[in-house]
Specification:
The complex is a heterotrimer of chains A (about 290), B (about 500) and C (about 300). Chain A is an all-alpha fold and about 290 residues long. Chain A is about 75% helix and about 0% strand. The radius of gyration of chain A is 25 Å and the shape is globular. The longest helix of chain B is centred in the first third of the chain and has 22 residues. Chain B folds into three domains: about 50 residues, no CATH class; about 180 residues, D-Maltodextrin-Binding Protein, domain 2; about 220 residues, D-Maltodextrin-Binding Protein, domain 2 (3-Layer(aba) Sandwich), CATH 3.40.190. Classes of the chains: A mainly alpha (about 290), B alpha/beta (about 500), C mainly alpha (about 300).
Amino acid sequence: MKDKKKKKSSPFKWKVMVVQILKTIFVTVAVIFTIYPVIYTIVGSFKTNAELTLGADFWPSSWQVENYYRAFVEADFLRYSLNSLIVAASVTTLAMMTSSLSGFILARRNFWGKKLLISLYLSMMFVSLGAIKLYPIYQMMRSLNLHKSLIALILTLTGGQAANVFLVMGFTRSIPTQLDEAAIIDGCSIFQVYYRIILPLSKPILGVVALFAFRNAWNDYIAGLIMTIGAPQLKPLTVAVVQLKYSVNAAAEWHIMLAGAAIAIIPILLVYSFASRHFISGLTAGALKG
Amino acid sequence: MKSKSVLSAVAMVMCVIFLFGGCANKGNVDKPTGTTESGKSETKGENKEAKTEETKKDEPKPENKNEKTIINIWTKDRHDAKYVQAKVDEYNQKSQDVEVVYTLYTDNYQQAADLAAQNGELPDILVFQNNVFDKHFGQGQWADLYQFMDEDMKKYFADVIIPGLNELDGKLYFIPTTGTACRLFYNKEIFERVGIKEPPKTLEEVLEYSRKITTELKGEGIYGFAGNMKSASSALNRSMVVGLQRETGTVSGYNFKEGKYDFSGWKDQLLLWKQLLAEDSAMPGCESLDIDPLRTQFAAGKIGMYFSYSHAEPGVYANQFPMDSAKWDAVPIPTTGGKVIGKQNFGATSAYILNAKSPNLETAFRVYKELFTSEEYLTGYYEGGYGVSIIPAIIEKANPSEDYKNKKWLRIHPEMDAILPKAPHAAFAAGIVVEGENMYKIAESVYYGDADVDAALADLNERYNKAYQEAIKNRTGYEIKIPNYDPMNPTLK
Amino acid sequence: MKFYANRLKKKEIKKNFEAYIFLIPNLILFMSCSLYPVLWALKYVFYQYGGYGAAEIRFVGLENLARVFRDKVYWQSIMRTFTYGFGKVLIIIPLAFLLAYILKERKKINTLAQSTIFLPTIMSSAVMGLVFYLLFNAYNGEINKILMNSGLIHQPINWLGKNHAMKTLIMTAVWGGLGNYMVYFIAGIQQVSTEAIDSARIDGANETKTIWYIILPMLGPILKIILMLAITSAFNDISNVMVLTEGGPNNATMVASLYNYRYFFPVSTTESTVPQYGYGAALSVVTACVAGLVTVLYLKVSRKLDDIY
């Protein structure tokens, strides 16, 4: 605010104005650039195929809700949405559970092999095999006979959680140990310390873990592609959407493809509209501590 | 604090999710991190159990009909999927003891089959595809059909049992019922508009006409030529590679007479293709085109010519992307200067292979026989325009779609189409490892890149022959040499 | 004494035991989903393995690694990964910084703009890859239609053709990453003390000078993190490339991650492609090493730069 006042009183008012206008234009362009594909998807999903392929007005002449009906029923998207929801919800839960347990104990206890473990976690954060790691995991799931159920995909997507473990560990360290000590003196076991003291206090960081786990699970493509290759009825939404390109009819039916894409992005948009601030602050928390 | 609202938001979302998912155990939403340690593992256990139930529900197998044997069929064919699905539904309704589950894979058919084969999980019946068949043949994966066939059936299909193709060492592995040949498809209307009277007979003419169409009609978004160039192998295997069989007498660069790879004959065509795909001729965006989007553009009258399979297109333009049948036709694939010294391979299609390791092999064969080899099915298939029948009894009886009656080159012509032997890299696909890029990618580097043709082809010769020799040496392959091979009268052995 | 030591040991054991109970759920997942694939890859580097039955697994020693170093196409794909990574960074960093600078103050309108620009970060890159394919394809794409209707171009631009595919890919990657980096910068700028900026202003420095001499130097540490993340992420991006271009045309967008992937899961429908797990493992191990080497080199260089300051 101080700045503004100074600017206004400066003799170069017009210059400030120009700069301000340039700034506004720049931001506006950036906003349009980012939002356009999203708007295109959502608005386009209500158009007719002819409107889409021949190029018409920005808004649909009449809103074709039936596109969604066709995607859900004919392209079987109801099943794939359900798959995605189950996977994303389970991954979120599992990620919060496993990372908070490990992060807590790594922050509070010394035990045999801790250093080794931490360095293993750390090194795995930097060694990345990319998508090919899915092949051995698939073979492993197969030998455990899990590959024909969503469990394989859920476990794969939850994964090692190294980054989240460190995030929780760092956060737990910032909680004063006096609290635990007092509880232990009161006769609490380490489990009770975790559950009664630490867990309620680490909600902020677990929220971050949950948001990002949900996002990653919901948006994942390649793990879903590989892990459901033997059981196509289990594939998640993203895979189903992309495969519309090769489906019997949809190659020519852009409205169905866009309806599919919209079905895949709208739920995460809803989550985002609830929690956009937390996504953003969570990201910085992760980056600065990690 | 804010954090509370995050968590409650997440919890809410998850509640909604679980409600939406109709999941019974809302319990673990309320306590996502468990109560005590033992409580936690319990929740986790519950969690998993619930998941299993749900995934079971997701599978299409109805649990209440447990007494029915489930026969799984996998296909990759999109053009006939609706027809086959209808037949499968009909069959399921009639059948007392069998439930057929028909699954359509798309571009990942091979991957799915490979993974399934490695894990012993192939379905009972698979649609025949060359590579899938070749790759897993050595492992004894496919069943001998003779063991179940009665004499009537053997007689009925006698004409399509070809030693070296589907009959190997006295065992029959699949029965093709339709044939497919690669052709050049063209839009008659566009040809008329720019004053081209005859469809092209040489590749040079293809180029000339393509340029003419593009120059004159570009303003309307109409272009002379297009190819599904996104996947070089998919595009070339239905065009250039087939044309070269007739032009050079080799198969995918393999010379059977000499028993070695020789790609030098590819040069002329590659250079013509480079011009054909240049800006003044081809439809912009070919590079990233798959075959189905290409067909939509052809159906919309935006493309003058393209190459594809004769079995698929009539069905596609009748059902998938409607187009007036009078507007298009097909001709043989033109070669450089019209030179022809051999025949071209025609694909034996609409065949099914049976998984020899299936626990229900006998039932699978019964389903196969009743579903896919009934006269009614085969006639309907031909008449519906899904493929050109090669079964004499059907050809005699059926009244095929107008397309097959009027468009000569959609049918198989023995003077041009024959079954050709397989080159080593196809005959023992799993045993030969060619280092570096395959022939299709190298071709792409010539027509879309700046690679020098001679150097590129010499390099191909060297690498393919080396891999072939190594495969023989390691006994993962064997020598294929037919000293008296005549490209005009190809023999398989 | 002995008794005491024993008791201590018991206590130790109990303590260790408790700790492991906490660790187990995560550890199982970590071992199976992070560690095991790496060990698996390290083993199969030395084998020729086509994946069909044990009979065909053959020990080949260092042959796979030697082949990696002969494989020109692979090294081209590494170079392309750099083009992709640097292209993305060079466009994103200045844009993200400017946006962060303009939107740094906590105002409602700024927050709204921030959330909007951050939006792509939460989208599936695969699904958006499909949408971008629809937007950019030359025959029916919306982008060409808009440009042609507005008279900016007269012929459709072949966005996914050999000349533009990489640029288009980078553009979509910028779309997906801009918000992320902007948020990093905002966090960084908010850490720069307002006093330093104010005092510079009082000294008569204008806005550009303040940015150049005060804010940018103070952003050093966060810039380092940002560049690091950008480099490592370039080696991991795969689904957007897969859906948008599949590496084509003529390998123009064949980045290392996709090249390696194709040895495990050959894509084509008609080509006789057999997976080569051994060689694929060698490729991915070498790629991981290259990525690691780049990171180390980068850290060294940036430390040197720190010393100069």
